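stage 2 :: seqdesign
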């Protein structure tokens, strides 16, 4: 922690980044840091923290918060996304609760006991429990159109956020777990940029004069969905028009995105630092595609 609104982040690569708060992740607006140790769960506030060191867990015991929510989310047009679920942009663990009111009672249901949630209308949802019982709930932002969004962190590309009107259902699945080795190596972006005239420029890449590492994200929208795609998982980006681009990830899926400077003519330029030490700037109107080097 640097001060009340800023922190220094050290990556596994050894690189450091100083970040200033624009959300509750950092700074005084942080809603609490919870530590689950052998003596129980302790809650700390931002002002209590000097440093946080992250490492592999050493104890083979279930977390006090329950398992991370994981499942397959289906939207109205039939598309599906599988990954780690954040419900109402808030609940992420099996011990977190879904609130709502049925015809005869108020309910607080642990997510770990839920197998599925299906949108019934703008005002209600059908919640299916492990025992097979299905309850129709209403009256809270967990189960109606006041829901702030459902995010799915898909290990194959990044994160997609779905609004309530697009949501159809979610099926919760066993948590698959991920080994540390599965995560991308942190490195600078490298690849080949091709211009509309056919020129090719290879080297280290800085996208939108901003993103230059594999852990950073490309932002865009499609069909009302918000995508945050990890650069380290992108194979190619192709300009479709002044306002849109096609992003293809390593597993072969493609997304036609618009609505941000990462994928339209508000882009501040694609910079390529070549092996001879020179830097080439390609403006969006001259950009055709980029092919990123495989990890």
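stage 2 :: out
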């Amino acid at each position: 922690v640097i001060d009340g609104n800023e922190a220094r982040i050290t990556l596994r690569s050894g690189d450091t980044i100083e970040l200033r708060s624009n959300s509750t992740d950092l700074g005084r607006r942080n809603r609490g840091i919870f530590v689950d140790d052998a003596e129980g769960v302790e809650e700390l506030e931002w002002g209590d923290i000097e440093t946080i060191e992250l490492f592999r867990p050493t104890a083979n015991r279930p977390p006090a918060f329950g398992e991370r929510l994981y499942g397959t989310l289906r939207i109205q047009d039939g598309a599906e996304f599988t990954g780690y679920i954040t419900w109402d942009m808030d609940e992420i663990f099996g011990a977190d609760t879904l609130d709502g009111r049925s015809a005869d009672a108020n309910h607080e249901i642990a997510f770990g006991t839920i197998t599925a949630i299906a949108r019934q209308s703008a005002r209600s949802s059908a919640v299916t429990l492990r025992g097979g019982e299905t309850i129709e709930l209403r009256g809270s932002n967990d189960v109606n159109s006041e829901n702030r969004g459902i995010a799915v962190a898909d290990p194959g590309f990044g994160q997609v956020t779905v609004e309530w009107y697009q949501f159809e259902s979610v099926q919760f699945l066993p948590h698959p777990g991920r080994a540390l080795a599965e995560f991308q190596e942190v490195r600078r972006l490298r690849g080949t940029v091709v211009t509309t005239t056919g020129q090719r420029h290879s080297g280290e890449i800085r996208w939108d004069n901003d993103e230059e590492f594999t852990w950073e994200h490309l932002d865009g929208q499609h069909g009302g969905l918000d995508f945050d795609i990890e650069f380290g998982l992108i194979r190619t980006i192709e300009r479709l028009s002044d306002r849109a681009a096609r992003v293809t990830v390593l597993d072969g899926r493609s997304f036609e995105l618009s609505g941000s400077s990462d994928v339209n003519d508000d882009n501040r330029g694609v910079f390529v630092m070549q092996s001879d030490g020179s830097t080439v700037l390609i403006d969006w109107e001259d950009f055709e595609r980029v092919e990123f080097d495989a990890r």
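stage 3 :: structure notes
- DSSP finds no helices and 24 strands in the chain.
- The mean pLDDT is 93.
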